[in-house]
Amino acid sequence: MDEAEHARLSRRQVLRQVSGVAAGAAAAGVLAWRLHDLTGERGKPPRPEISLPPGGYAVERSTVLPALGVATGQSVAALVKGAVDAVGGMGRFVRHGDVVVIKPNVAFERAAALGATTNPEVLRALVMLVRDAGAREVRVADNPIESPEACFVRSGVQRAAVEAGATVYLPSPRDFRTLAVPGATWIARWPFFHRPFLGATKVIGVSPVKDHNLCRASMTTKNWYGLLGGRRNQFHQDIHGIIADLALMMRPTLVLLDATRVLFRSGPTGGSLSDVRPGNTVVASTDSLAADAFGWHELLERRGEPLPAYFEKSAARGLGNPDWKAQHVKRVQVG
Amino acid sequence: MASTLVIPGWEKHRPKPNKDGSPWWARTFRITRVRIASQVFFFSLFVFLLWCTWFSRLRGYPVSLFLEVDPLVGVATALSTHTVYRWLWRGLFVLVPTLLLGRAFCNWMCPYGTLHQFVGWVFNIWTNKNNIDRNRYRPAYQIKYLILGVFLVMAALGSLQIGLLDPICLLVRTFTTAIAPASDLAHLNLAAALRERLGMDPQPLIFLSSAPGAPEQRIFRGAWFVGLLIVGLVGMNLVVPRFFCRVLCPLGAFLGVLARFAPFRIKRDLTKCTDCNACLRRCEGASDPQAALRKSECFVCFNCIDDCPEDALSFGLGPIEFKDFIVGSPRKGAATLFGRPVISKIPETVKAAPAVPRRRWAFAVVGGVLAYPFLRLSAAVNKRGFSAKAIRPPGSVEESEFLERCIKCDQCIRVCPTNVLQPSTLAEGGLEGLWTPVMNFSVGFCQLNCTLCSEVCPTGAIQKTSLARKLGVGQHASQGPISVGTAFFDRGRCLPWAMETPCVVCEEVCPVTPKAIGTYEETITRWDGTKVTLKKPYMRPELCIGCGLCEHECPVLDSPAVYVTAIGETRSQDRSLLLETSRKSKEKT
Fold it and tell me: Do the Cβ atoms of A214 and B508 come within 8 Å?
């Protein structure tokens, strides 16, 4: 009995222990209350959506300047400058301090001569022009079909971009965000390669002129395909609808059609020099549909054939005018 | 006045000379410190070379160097192929020093040994007395010699299995399939956190990524098992110090056999040794330095020399045993050696050969002789009954030769830029093919202009292959391209064939020219009355190289409507599909 008396807890010990337990229980209760999720909705991961600036990256339309600048000649640098100058010069598109994203087509791991990717010399000249116009930063970005690093290196785009002073953005797993494209049929919400666009103020597309097995021709509009991620392999189920969506998604500052080489068959991958012929042309425009239509008729030389369906679909949305002949086209011959 | 800098209290803290009169720095720069520096160097070099095993980092570094200097790789492949491939002669860099110095490799160079020692050191919670007991030799340590015996006999018969346990192969494989992807994941999270929460440029952290420029997190089949294995093996250090090195390591066993011939060894001075056993406290190899040194177990770590309070241990030429020169009986305590009193009660100082009884060697040989047919006659690796999914990288030699050469190091898998190369599981290659490289096109595809796997393969399982040879151009035009398999359509799952839905991603991405996938055009009226023009794809098998880009890009993800199987691979006449290619491959040989 005495023993038990001595072993009795002191008042202070009891209070300390009981209050400790009570505080722990209360904390657990508060935590449970705060985290409580009756429907299970709160526990799902957030899927933040981003959107591109309203009106896209386009500059003000001009009523006096030509809609298409077409330069022909041998010197690649002169071709790029000639075409851009014909539509108002780079100063019209890029101002001092701009952060410019340039989107070449580097979809495949091919040497430049095979015409499946943007000519690195065209890209080099373009980056120089953009930098000379006062851009603070030039970013070159694409999400290729094949291994990105290999595509950028094999095509020569990596080297040209870096040498000209641009930063290359290769896609990595965390670089994609869901982009909202209001009004789009298929890609109203789709994973978008967004990292290069953080803080970007201008966007320039520069694509080769290529035959395409499914949509017949891959030029500046189809080029935006390379900004998307996710299940792109579903796009072929309505490729024309998708390209019209791409036109809706990206309203660029400027597009360049690199027809220094033309991949006139076995597109979009090519792989043989016999599929390529020299084009010696660069086209610049603010209207990618007009540029692409010009490419269809004059560069792929499919004059007698009707334009692929995506032209009409895109034009119906007011995204451009494929009737390039009705517009002001300035042709220049350079060295 | 200002010319002499006086640090207050310096006098008190100035290092004191050693008791034997040698200067203080003899304590700091002792041989065990040099050993640690060597271990840090070689471990760093090992990690650096693995880090370099990537498209943009290769720059001509000898990225497979550790695999090449591993003499067990050289000797075992020499047994299986009767040749020494490319750089494997570099095994002499380890073999010759071992013949002179003993198993110094294990504690001076081996990155896996360093890892085990480090983990054992960090988590060593034992008292000195316990450590002395834990570092005593145990009979279980002969298991590694039996493993070596089995593997070498199998290699001689034509099945190379050393890679299962060879420490370099094991560590390269673990780095490739488990550690590097984990590092990538950490890098991704860290970079995203820096960019999004702190607004900083995470580019300087790119060194943490093992695969910069990879568009997706790299994944590997069976990574969980490889990861579990290394955690388990390294964790065993908490139970038995250097468990892997002492019990399992076939390379250690091989070097142990060589070490018996080494003229240099740890020598014990019988006239100084008091049998205190302090030398066992940190003995890495459990090699009995306190008694008859087991040369085949000694890692030449020099800890015993450090720990000996009597300065009775040294390293040097020790070709003979002093036992026979002792006058009197050491056990009774009245013996002399060359006139000096013998203090130690144990007169033996060396035991050269591994303590494996001859009948156990015989058991290992019988085991190896039996293991060969057991593995080889499993259907998975044979001409008949092979797995359709055992698709080998381009440049691989014919399957039975492949299994004579592949050491499962997974360097090819590490360097593969698209992640298509995966460690084989039991399903594709059975036990014999475990962890050898196979292609999995749901993960990646074979990049057309890439031959990196053939560059890094240390043993020629994937022969060094030029791009011209892979593509069949230039001087190789008559041979045609290397095909690793053939693609097939499953019309029941193909969108245009079975579901009235346009697609042909496969045709678009097919990288060969002319394309190996053609289409039939057909205009149909769909179930809802709409008219649709479908392009229905078909294969042109003589053009297909089995690169799997079509399978990889097919929108029917889980079980693609176009898929590659191993049939039609160039390397094998038995697995050819077309009469035409069969003729070509016969002309070549």
Answer: yes
Whether A154 and B449 lie within 8 Å, measured CB to CB: yes
- A65 part of contact set with chain B, CB < 8 Å: no
**Taking the complete model, does pTM exceed 0.80, yes or no?**
yes
A37 exposure class (CB count in 10 Å sphere: 0-12, 13-18, 19+): exposed
Q: At A114, list the tokens.
A: 């095979």
* CA gap B143, B204 in Å, rounded: 47
Measured between CA atoms, the residue of chain A closest to residue B216 is: A173
Domain count, chain B: 1
Q: Categorize the per-residue pLDDT at A61 as very low, low, confident or very high, splitting at 50, 70 and 90.
A: confident
Count of domains forming chain A: 2
ipTM computed for the complex: 0.88
Lowest average pLDDT, out of B35-49, B149-163, B379-393, B560-574, goes to: B379-393
Q: Phi/psi at A211 (nearest 5 deg)?
A: -65, 150
Distance CA A57, CA A67 (A): 17
Quick check: is B317 in a domain?
yes
Given CB atoms, is A108 within the 8 Å cutoff of chain B?
yes
Do A150 and B192 count as a contact with CB atoms less than 8 A apart?
no
Same domain, A23 and A57: no
- Which residue among B501, B513, B555 places its CB closest to the CB of A233? B555
Whether residue B301 is contained in a domain is answered as yes
Residues A204-221 have pLDDT tens digits of 999 999 999 899 999 999
What's B325's domain CATH number? 3.30.70
The count of C-alpha atoms lying within 13 angstroms of the C-alpha of A70, restricted to the half-sphere facing its C-beta, is 20
| Phi, psi dihedrals of residue A55, rounded to the nearest 5° | 85, 0
